[in-house]
C-alpha cells in the first residue's frame, strides 16, 4: 500500500489520543474513515476535525466480540470495501500481580488483547477481498520488556506482538494481499495515564504526573510515524526515541535488562 488516497481506513479508539491524531493524519492522506470509540462526544470531535474527507462514526466497545464482527459487516456495507484496520483502542492498569483484581485483569485483556485479536479476525476477510489490505495493531514498548506493576498490560501487549508477528508471516506464506504491522509506542502525551486504573497502594496522582514527565512524544508525531511505517510496510513500527532505546536494550542485553528496569521502577513506581 504505497498510496492511501481514497482507501477506507478503520480506526478503533478514535475518540482521543493517538486514535484521533491517526484519523486526522489519514484524512490528510485522502483516506475515507470509519471511526469508532465508546466515547460519543470524543468521537464527534474527531469526526469534525476530519471534515475534508468522508467520515462515518460508530459507537463500539472492542471488549464485545459480537459487536466487533457486526461492526466489520456494517463498515463494509457502508463503504463497500475496507483497506486498512488500525486496532488502536486500549486501556492501562498499574497494579502488582498480588494486588490487582480478577475484574481489572480481565478488563485489560478484553480490550487490549481480545479487542485487537477480534478486530483483526473480523476485518481480515474483507482486507483480503480488497486486494490490497493492511492490518496495524497497537502494542507498546511494554510488549518488548516486562515492567513491575504492569503485568496485566505486559500480558496483553506481549500477546498483541506475538499474534501480529505470526499473522504477518502467515499472510506472506499464504500469499495473501495483506500487509501486517505491529506498533510499539513509547511514552506518548495522551490521556491514557489519567484514565488508567491504579492499585490500592499506589499514589495515583504522583504516578500520573511521573508518566507525564516521561512522555517524550506528541500524539501528532506518533501518528506521523505510524503512517510512515504503514506506507513503508514496516513489520515493527517503533514510536519515539524511548521506544528505540528500549528495543535496543532488549536486543543487546536479552533478559539481563531486568536489573536496570528494577532500579528504574524502585524510584518511579514504588512510591
What do these coordinates show?
With 271 residues, the protein is of the alpha/beta class. It has a single domain, classed as 3-Layer(aba) Sandwich (Rossmann fold). Helices cover 51% and strands 15% of the residues. Helix 1 runs parallel beside helix 2, helix 1 (17-28) crosses helix 7 (219-231) and helix 4 packs parallel to helix 5 (151-173). The longest helix has 29 residues, at 102-130. The chain starts with 7 loop residues before the first strand and ends with a helix. The relative contact order is 0.13.
Any descriptors?
single chain; 271 residues; alpha/beta; Rossmann fold; two-stranded parallel sheet; 9 helices; 51% helix
User: How many strands?
Assistant: 9
Q: Structural class, from helix and strand content? A: alpha/beta
CATH architecture type:
3-Layer(aba) Sandwich
Total number of helical segments? Answer: 9
Broad shape: globular
What fold name goes in the CATH topology slot? Answer: Rossmann fold
Number of domains: 1
Instruction: Report, as a whole number of angstroms, the end-to-end distance.
Output: 46 Å
Average of pLDDT: 92
The CATH first-level class comes to Alpha Beta
Compressed to H and E, one letter per element, the order equals EHEHEHEEHEHEEHHEHH
User: Mind summarizing the main beta sheet?
Assistant: 7 strands, parallel
Q: Radius of gyration over alpha carbons? A: 18 Å
Q: Give the strand line-up of the largest sheet.
A: 3-2-1-4-6-7-9
Poorly predicted ranges (pLDDT <50, ≥5 residues)? none
Strand percentage: 15-25%
The CATH homologous superfamily is named: NAD(P)-binding Rossmann-like Domain
Classify the helix fraction into a percent range.
40-55%
